[in-house]
Design brief:
Length: 638
């Protein structure tokens, strides 16, 4: 096992609209804005890594490999599985009893790599269980980017526990000249396996789960995949495992649709009057809880229909949509789509059709939408069942997948946005002598959620990484003096750098670009001054944009800005046993006097947080005067 070290984790941009004032000192460099050529991107741009160990105390994960990762890289950590479900052989099968850590995610910045260990700048926000398929997804960063051919998520691979996520960060302009596509990249649909033709009306398999690998006969076809990691014993049958759709039971019943935060649709049933006639259709994938947006999920896979004739080559249950995460200042759509749609359920002829995949999850942290961009996380239609007019033989169609969920960092933009549930699969060619149709059902519509803040930690881990400088910096310091924050940095090779972005985190609520500064060839020393920070803690960093368009981050520097007298507040007021004083500087002199000026006590503030708690002595009710560094405040004792 590699030696682990403490380090710091940097949160990502949540709100760029906080205003600040900053001056660049004359004689050093000049404030300037430049336009940069856009990087062309297409295909799969993310890298995916298995997390094999989590060390929360050190904001550290160990990976199967660290190839392709570097200090300053942004990354998403997300747990793909781990829910606990009811496994009773009853209609309650698949009910989620606990999501546990399934769906937990956060976004941060890599501080340091050593061996197989990756350290972050902030403490982890969530807990993770590595046996339940936790992955790290590297998020590529661009100054500006143009999608020249379809940008894709790698399909989810349950064997190695990676894929299904597309995530990018673009500092300025993201232009779509092709789609961004995570359709059918999520949880896998139930496999299409042909059963022997044996069936029985008297002893029809009514169970909620079976081992779907047993095909002589297959009592229940494969269920769709979801947040519960299905074992072989539970792999088949009509019960829905959390957000995965249930499979159709023997004989020729339809599979059900997958789910996300909304439920899928039931599969259609056997309505024959000849041969095997029992209706035992797959049950719909069950809606998950996002726990207030703290968890994100891929769309659940559809359950497979029960098959014994194999007259139509089918793909089985439809795959769910994947996860998309995009940060950009401006997004120019050019009428292209951003989509995480589910896949249509597989069709069947004189067999059971399969359920569809659910829509996935899309998070868009975008300031401005230019032109038209269609954003979709739709459930797909259930599989079509073609009865072919066979006398007395009518079988089940597939259930529709649910719509997914789309999060916007601000108000829902005035662009086409859809999270439509998938339609029920149709049943065609029915014979008039069949019993009443047992139709499949549509998936429920998904959710559109505005004003969403994605999850990244705000708790600094340790000062360890503050001394780990990238090769582009030889020093970077920050200090508070004379009511201002002074930032100083030195670069050994300014000729390789295009510009610096000075960023500040206002009390940990998100990074804001407060100025841009041009790198000047031959000038190695730079300085900037933040003129008017308010009291509290601040984080500062320098984002370095190289002439190659690569992005590099400085370490994070933490500064405490003491409160000014006018910012001092006392609460509660009136008070009785204790009071709190905010805006107090370390070492401030405190005195308490009665209204006549008689001194009751004097203290000196000891604080690192700008707030102190003061226990009050037993005093008669009345008006008192408390002074903080000579500034008088009225205090009522009751």
């Amino acid at each position: 096992m590699a030696t682990r070290k403490f380090c710091l984790l940097t949160p990502l941009v949540v709100n760029r609209k906080i205003s600040h004032w900053l001056i660049i000192l004359p004689g050093l460099v000049f404030l300037s804005l430049y336009s940069f050529a856009q990087t062309n991107i297409s295909g799969i741009v993310n890298s995916y890594y298995q997390v094999i160990d989590v060390v929360p105390a050190k904001a550290c994960v160990r990976l199967n490999t660290v190839a392709g990762l570097a200090q300053g890289d942004k990354a998403m950590i997300v747990q793909m599985k781990g829910a606990t479900i009811n496994t009773s052989n009853s209609s309650a099968f698949g009910d989620t009893t606990s999501l546990n850590n399934a769906g937990n995610y956060e976004i941060g910045t890599i501080c340091y790599l050593r061996g197989d260990s990756v350290f972050f700048v902030f403490m982890f926000l969530n807990q993770y269980t590595v046996t339940d398929k936790v992955q790290l997804v590297r998020i590529p960063e661009y100054v500006s980017a143009t999608v020249t051919d379809t940008l894709k998520a790698a399909p989810w691979n349950n064997t190695n526990g990676t894929g299904g996520v597309l995530a990018i960060h673009v500092e300025q302009d993201l232009v779509l000249n092709a789609p961004i596509f995570a359709d059918m990249s999520g949880y896998r649909g139930g496999a299409y396996i042909v059963s022997s033709g044996t069936c029985s009306n008297a002893g029809a398999p009514m169970g909620w789960y079976y081992n779907a690998n047993n095909t002589s006969p297959q009592s229940g076809s494969f269920k769709g995949e979801g947040v519960f990691d299905i074992t072989a014993a539970f792999s088949g049958g009509r019960g829905a495992p959390a957000n995965g759709g249930g499979g159709g039971n023997n004989h020729n019943n339809g599979g059900a649709g997958g789910a996300n935060l909304s439920s899928g649709g039931d599969g259609g049933g056997n309505s024959s009057t000849t041969g095997c006639t029992v209706t035992i259709a797959g049950r719909a994938g069950k809606a998950l809880s996002s726990h207030g947006g703290k968890k994100i999920f891929m769309g659940g896979g559809g359950g497979a229909g029960h098959v014994n004739n194999n007259l139509v080559s089918s793909n089985g249950g439809g795959h769910g949509g994947g996860i998309i995460f995009i940060q950009a200042e401006n997004l120019t759509g050019n009428s292209y789509k951003i989509s995480a749609n589910g896949q249509v359920g597989g069709p069947a002829a004189s067999d059971g059709a399969s359920g569809a995949g659910a829509g996935g999850t899309i998070i868009l942290d975008v300031d401005n939408y230019i032109g038209t961009t269609t954003v979709e996380s739709n459930g797909a239609q259930g599989g079509t069942e073609a009865d072919g007019g066979n006398i007395g033989r009518c079988y089940g169609a597939g259930g529709g997948g649910s719509g997914g969920v789309i999060y916007f960092s601000g108000a829902t933009p005035a662009i086409p946005v859809t999270v439509t549930g998938g339609a029920a699969g149709p049943e065609t060619g029915r014979d008039a002598s069949c019993a009443a149709v047992v139709p499949s059902a549509a998936g429920a519509d998904g959710l559109i959620i505005p004003n969403y803040t994605y999850f990244s930690s705000l708790v600094l881990a340790n000062s360890y990484c503050s001394v780990l400088l990238p090769v582009e910096l030889s020093s970077f310091t920050a200090r508070f003096a004379n009511e201002q924050t002074w930032l100083n940095w030195k670069v050994p090779q300014p000729e390789t750098i295009n510009r610096f972005l000075i960023e500040r985190s206002n009390n940990g609520t998100g990074w804001t670009k407060i100025a841009e500064q041009v790198a000047v060839e031959g000038t190695i020393i730079y300085q900037a001054v933040d003129l008017s920070p308010h009291p509290g803690y601040y984080l500062y960093r320098i984002k370095i944009i190289k002439k190659s368009s690569a992005l590099v981050y400085s370490p994070v520097q933490r500064i405490y800005v003491p409160g000014k007298n006018k910012d001092i507040t006392i609460y509660p007021n009136p008070a009785s046993k204790k009071m709190f004083i905010t805006g107090v500087s370390p070492g401030s002199a405190l005195t308490l006097s009665d209204i006549s000026g008689k001194l009751i006590w004097q203290k000196r503030a000891i604080t690192n947080q700008g707030i102190i708690e003061v226990a009050l002595p037993l005093l008669p009710s009345g008006v008192y005067i408390i002074k903080i560094d000579g500034v008088a405040k009225r205090l009522i004792i009751r």
